């Protein structure tokens, strides 16, 4: 390794050259004078300069070094000299974004010791926080380590200051980010952030230089100019890292590569002003391939690692793949652009075919060549659906709403989907599940989870099944509520008629304890509760239920709510309203309902009417007509003529043994008359039926005060007929006389007819005999 001259500067040197770290073959250089500044990007491999935008405060003097952010995307320098032009100090940090070639200046550094802090070096803690060495010269030349946050443009100074002097030209920080280092002359200082304390070490025979290396403080040996560094990992001094420059011993500030293999520096004695330890040799980038992840039916994630950016730097990287074992860049590939740094990366592989084997490589390209990692294979899934589990909502005590989405059907029809849940992680279809059936919808869905325990942590996963198997979303957790009142909904009322209806409801959640009562309550005002009319359906579990609502008035608006009660109280569903039908015309299939003052009925057609009297006490419903009690018996009018009918025959509402009459208080009575029964009404009494205890054709003496009267009667085919005394004699002489011997007794004498079935009872004024002429046994 030997020192060689680099290309001449595009412009005359106006101040002091400050170098960024060398990244690949690129180094950034700032030439900061008292009134003029030049800012360049220099390609060591091609010896070419690119002139870049100067900092905002470049005419006010740019000083000490260029520091590079950890992500390699930004630079920081120090600008804006104030006060004496000879002190070569700055009062602002400026941040340069490499991608956009733009600068942003900070607020002024804070004041201490009687003046604004003069800042001389800076180190990046991370991509947003800088630690800056600042001092003052108007007092005792004290220093402080200041903190600056880029995103908020805020400075923080801490209590303690050190009186050793202000101009610390280089800065570094240890890997733990707990100690900030600074170097000047033959001394380096350590600031411990947690204790706000300083410690100084002298390194005799060496001079610290304006060089940025995040974890090292670089210096030169005073005798021969060779470079070395203090390592912040252990405070060790590492001397003579590069060969001596025997051409020109006086080497000032410089920049080094991250691996410490190359150096570029400013020479002090002659032009060209830059020298290095040889041109940066060209090299290919290097990359490794890792196994594919997130493999689905049509997608996968490729994984890789850029281990070297190469020289010149890589300009493109990604993955290429194919369904044969020798993929190239001419097959499928991702292009992720210019890699900003080495490290791991991923690519989204899309457009894959299900159940197919693929071969893949990571790659990185620079102007020299394309490098590829090892060949990796993977096989897409056999069409199992891709599913996402979304957060659970509407969490109650025993229920919750599971949410998910089917993102990919897997290439075949989804035959079942829903959510699976359990108290253990990663539930599957062998645990508790909802089954929402087949679907061809790609997108969101939800499922009602029931039967949960109160105050319990559950795991849930959305799932979908097709002919290849079941796919699951990620595991999501939720905790049910503590015990409470039931959750109830009221559905639309059905089967409304003039006096009744059917209430419908659902117990969605039992509230963590058993439902002891449920039903519907109703009234003519909104928000009915259990103090109003209600059904009591008893205990219940979750699910739909119905209630029979009765005692309603026709043509009336009602409100009803489902309710459920447990040990915690009673809950109600929403209000549902309905109006009962009026008592006027009601249509029935094949009939038209009619009403008049004293008559109700159905008109079946023009020639047949069916009637029921309004005051009939029989309350059997007829064709849903229950407004007033009506009879299940009918009277039929069969006259084939338009109303009003003439000469119609009205069939009795009752049979031939029934007499319809009213009591003295007008109560209707159906009186059954058996054989041999008299029906009559005593003065002031009700109609009654009295059995008389005689058989057909018997003669009975009713009254014999006058023989001219019909003093006798008998039952004939025409009913009960009165019989005169002469008629009785005729009957006896014409019928009974032929069959019986009267023993020379006349009808007025006391005696006994010698016949087994004929007896004369003179003492009772009653004679009874059978009028059957064929009777035997007469003597």
TrEMBL record:
Transmembrane segments: none annotated. Signal peptide: none annotated. InterPro entries: FN3_sf, Kelch-typ_b-propeller. SUPFAM superfamilies: Fibronectin type III (SSF49265), Kelch motif (SSF117281). This is Fibronectin type-III domain-containing protein. It comes from marine sediment metagenome.
């Amino acid at each position: 390794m030997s020192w060689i001259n680099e290309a001449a500067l595009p412009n005359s040197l106006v101040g002091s050259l400050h170098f960024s770290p060398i990244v690949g073959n690129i180094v950034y250089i700032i030439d900061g004078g008292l009134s003029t500044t030049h800012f360049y990007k220099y390609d060591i491999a091609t010896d070419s300069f690119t002139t870049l935008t100067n900092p905002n405060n470049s005419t006010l003097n740019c000083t000490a070094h260029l520091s590079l952010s950890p992500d390699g995307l930004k630079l920081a320098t120090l600008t804006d000299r104030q006060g004496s032009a000879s002190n070569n100090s700055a009062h602002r940090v400026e941040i340069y974004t490499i991608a956009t070639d733009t600068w942003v200046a900070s607020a002024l550094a804070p004041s201490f010791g009687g003046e604004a802090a003069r800042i001389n070096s800076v180190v990046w803690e991370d991509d947003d926080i800088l630690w800056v060495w600042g001092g003052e010269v108007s007092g005792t030349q004290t220093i402080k380590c200041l903190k600056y946050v880029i995103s908020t443009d805020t400075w923080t100074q801490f209590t303690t200051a050190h009186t050793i002097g202000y101009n610390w030209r280089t800065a570094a920080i240890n890997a733990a980010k707990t100690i900030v280092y600074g170097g000047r002359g033959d001394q380096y200082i350590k600031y411990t952030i947690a204790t706000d304390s300083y410690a100084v070490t002298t390194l005799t025979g060496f001079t610290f230089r304006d060089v940025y290396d995040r974890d090292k403080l670089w210096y030169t040996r005073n005798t021969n100019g060779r470079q070395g560094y203090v390592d912040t990992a252990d405070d060790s001094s590492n001397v003579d890292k590069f060969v001596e420059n025997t051409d020109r011993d006086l080497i000032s500030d410089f920049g080094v590569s991250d691996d410490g293999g190359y150096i570029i520096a400013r020479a002090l004695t002659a032009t060209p002003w830059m020298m290095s330890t040889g041109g940066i040799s060209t090299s290919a980038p290097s990359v490794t391939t890792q196994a594919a992840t997130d493999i689905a039916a049509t997608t996968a994630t490729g994984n890789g690692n850029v281990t070297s950016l190469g020289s010149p730097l890589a300009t493109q990287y990604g993955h290429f793949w194919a369904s044969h074992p020798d993929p190239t860049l001419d097959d499928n590939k991702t292009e992720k652009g210019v890699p900003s740094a080495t490290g791991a990366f991923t690519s989204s592989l899309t457009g894959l075919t299900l159940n197919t084997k693929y071969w893949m490589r990571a790659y990185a390209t620079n102007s020299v060549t394309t490098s590829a990692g090892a060949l990796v294979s993977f096989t897409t899934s056999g069409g199992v659906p891709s599913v996402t589990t979304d957060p659970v909502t509407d969490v109650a005590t025993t229920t919750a709403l599971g949410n998910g989405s089917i993102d990919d059907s897997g290439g075949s029809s989804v035959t079942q989907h829903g959510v699976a849940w359990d108290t253990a992680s990663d539930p599957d279809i062998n645990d508790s599940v909802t089954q929402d059936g087949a679907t061809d919808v790609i997108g969101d869905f939800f499922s009602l989870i029931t039967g949960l325990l109160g105050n319990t942590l559950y795991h849930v996963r959305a799932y979908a099944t097709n002919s290849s198997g079941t796919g699951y979303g990620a595991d999501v957790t939720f905790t049910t509520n503590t015990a409470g009142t039931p959750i109830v909904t009221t559905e639309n009322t059905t089967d409304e008629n003039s006096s009744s209806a059917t209430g419908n409801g659902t117990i969605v959640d039992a509230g963590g304890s058993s439902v002891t009562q449920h039903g519907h309550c109703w009234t003519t005002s909104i928000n009915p509760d259990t103090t109003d009319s209600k059904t009591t359906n008893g205990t219940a579990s979750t699910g739909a239920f119905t209630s029979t609502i009765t005692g309603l008035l026709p043509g009336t608006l009602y409100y009803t709510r489902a309710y459920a009660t447990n040990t915690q109280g009673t809950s109600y569903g929403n209000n549902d309203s309905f109006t009962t039908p009026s008592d006027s015309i009601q249509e029935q299939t094949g009939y038209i309902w009619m009403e008049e003052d004293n008559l109700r009925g159905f008109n079946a057609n023009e020639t047949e009417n069916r009637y029921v009297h309004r005051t009939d006490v029989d309350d059997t419903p007829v064709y849903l007509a229950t407004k007033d009690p009506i009879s299940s018996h009918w009277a039929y009018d069969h006259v084939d003529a338009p109303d009003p009918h003439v000469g119609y025959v009205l069939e009795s509402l009752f049979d031939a043994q029934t007499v319809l009459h009213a009591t003295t208080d007008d109560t209707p009575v159906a009186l059954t008359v058996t054989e041999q029964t008299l029906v009559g009404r005593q003065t002031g009494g009700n109609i009654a039926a009295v059995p008389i205890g005689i058989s057909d054709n018997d003669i009975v003496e009713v009254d014999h005060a006058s023989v001219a009267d019909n003093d006798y009667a008998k039952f004939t085919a025409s009913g009960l007929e009165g019989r005169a005394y002469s008629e009785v004699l005729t009957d006896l002489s014409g019928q009974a006389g032929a069959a019986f011997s009267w023993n020379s007794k006349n009808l007025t004498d006391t005696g006994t007819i010698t016949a087994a079935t004929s007896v004369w009872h003179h003492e009772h004024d009653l004679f009874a005999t059978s009028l059957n002429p064929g009777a035997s046994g007469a003597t």
